[in-house]
Structures are given as C-alpha cells and as structure tokens.
Amino acid sequence: MKELTSFEGIKCTNCTTPLEGEFCHHCGQSVHSVLRPVHGLVEEFFEMFLHIDGRILHTVPPLFLKPGFLTLEYFSGRRVRYIAPFRLMFVLCLLSFFTLHLAADVISARVDQRHQHALITGSPSDFEDDDSADEVQKDLARKLASLEAARAANAQAGNNAAIATQIDSNEQQSRDNARQRLTELGMPASAASTAATQATASTPKKDEDRNTVDPVNIPWLPASANQRLTQLGQHMHDNVEAVFKGNPAERQEARERLITNVFGALPGTMLVLIPTFALLLTLVYIFKRRLYMEHLIVALHSHAFIFLSLLLIIVAGMLSTWLKPHAAWTGWVLGFGQGALMVWVPAYLLVMQKRIYRQGWVMTIVKFLLIGWAYIWLLSLALAMAAVLGLAH
C-alpha cells in the first residue's frame, strides 16, 4: 500500500489523470522527469542494459533448446520477459549475415593467396597455345598484370624480399618465353623483342573495349523506367565481365563488390520471405482457424532459430579454420558440432510444428515436407533476387 499511497494527490503532467503508480494508466507517461543530473541518466542506461540482458537470457536458450516454447508463451500472453519476435529475428538475421560475410571474405582472401602463391612460385607459361602475335601480346599483358598485382600485394604485406625476387624472375622469364614464341611464329628476333615490349606497356582501355547491352524498350513503361532497366542491365553485364574476364585485380575487386552487394540485399529479401512463409502456413493449416498474426509469429521464431543456428555453424567453421593448424582435434570436435547443428535444425522445426499446431505425427510430417519443399523454392527465389540485386548494383 505504501507505493500506492505515496502517489495520492499527484496527477499526470501530460493528461492530469490521478496517478496510482510510477506510470500513468491512461497515457503511459512516467512520473519521473527527463530533467535530471547526468549520473541519473547513467543509472538509467545501465538499468535498461541489464533489463535487455535479462531478456536475452530468458529468450535465446529456450529459442535454441525448446522447440515452440517461445511461440506458445506468446500465444498464452506471457511476453514481457522475452524479446519481441520481430526484433529477435532481425538482430539474429543481421548478426548471421554479417558473420557469413566475414567468412566469405576470409575464404576469398585464402583463394587469392593460393592463386598469388601459384602465380609467384609456378613456372610461367611458354605460350604454346598462342597461334598469332596478337594472342602472345595479350597473354603476356595478362600475365604481367597478374604479376604486378602480386607485387602490389607483396608491397602492402611488407615487401618480402624472397617473393619480390621470385616475381621479378617470373616476369623476366615470361618476357623471354613470349619472345621465343613470337620467333617461332616467324617474327624476327628484333621484331619479337619490340612486340613483347609493346605488350608490357599496353593496357586495355575500358571505355573502348566495353561491351554495351541493348537498351530496354518496354512500350507500356515510361522512358525513365526503361532507362533505369537498361542501366541495371549494363551494371550486371559489367560485373559479370569483371568477375570472369578481368585481370586478377579487377576480378578480386568485382568479387568483393558482388559479395558485399549480395549480403547487403539479403536482409531486405528475407523481410519479404518471412511474411510469405507465414502465408504458406496459413494455407496449409487453414482448417485450424488461426489468425495470420499467429502464423507470422511462428514464422518469426522459426527464422530466428534458423539464423541463430546459422550463426553458430559459421562461428564453429571459422574457429575450426583458426584452431585446426594448432590443435588437430579441435577441427574434429567443431566439425562434429557443425554436423549436429545441421541435423538439429530440421528436427527442431518438425517438433516445433507438432507442438504448436497439435496434429498427429503423420499429418505433421506430411505438412512439414510440403512446407519444406515450398520453402526451398521460396528461399531459392529470394537468394536469386539477392544475387540479381547484387549484380545490378
């Protein structure tokens, strides 16, 4: 009673309703003023942080270990102690895609390192497959551009003297092999030397060599829309050309740009996929007479679990990559953990569907397989859309 009597005679400063606690039961405004000393703001910040942290501890473990528990709690009206479904899904989505982006960057960097190592330590081609002087010049220009990119990477890494010497040796050997092939094709030695020198100095002019796509002309669209579609098509064409036909530096830049664009488009694409998945649940369980919002909560919690599992799988893979060279047994343990997580995901979703919709195992499995088949198509479409958006950026 002390808490109630302490507010007797006090009215809400916003709507003048008599207060019965720290918050107005009519408009929800707090009795505490926002004009307070700095230490009060610091205390409020830590109180809010600890409150959120407490909700994390109440939300994440049951989300991962208890299929359908959070959803049934929400259906029962017990929601205050848990993080809201959309916020939970969105945060885990961003974390998982951010970690996946880091893992993709690590893999891309390792592939580039192996390519550069093979380029530096391997023997240069003797141009045996070149049948004309133009092909020899273009092949030599590509090889010298690759070696120049390797030289720049070595300089950025600290100028390893042994690697620099190997690059210089390979460059000189490539020039000699090009001159030898030009001589074999019937060019005099002096002309072959001049042609090899010209190949060294030649650089492709992007604006002149750039292939343009045909303009889009859809009659019922306005001119600005056709122009925009043409521009997106040109971007896609340029990105594909850079990924597969550019020099190593251009391919690396194009891959990084494509990966960044795709992962940037994935969260927005998933926001479209989740309501569609909820609609699919509504159609499959139409005779259960549940509201669409209930199916949406099921979809949000399902995807939150999937993103959490994806995050754990990626982290386990990255830890395995870092720890395996130092302790081989960690690779086996983390690999087993990844396999267990991959098995747990479909098992969790099946049990969750059984507990929420309360049907027999036969009907639950049939509907689970139907939903899974449709979801794979939806996910493939979402990933394709993200890839297209990434290419068109």
UniProtKB/TrEMBL annotation:
Keyword Membrane: yes
Protein name, entry field: DUF3667 domain-containing protein
Keyword Glycoprotein: no
Transmembrane segments: 262-286, 298-323, 329-351, 372-392
Highest taxon above the source species: Bacteria
Region (Disordered): 187-212
Keywords: Membrane, Transmembrane, Transmembrane helix
Compositionally biased region (Low complexity): 189-203
Species name: Dyella caseinilytica
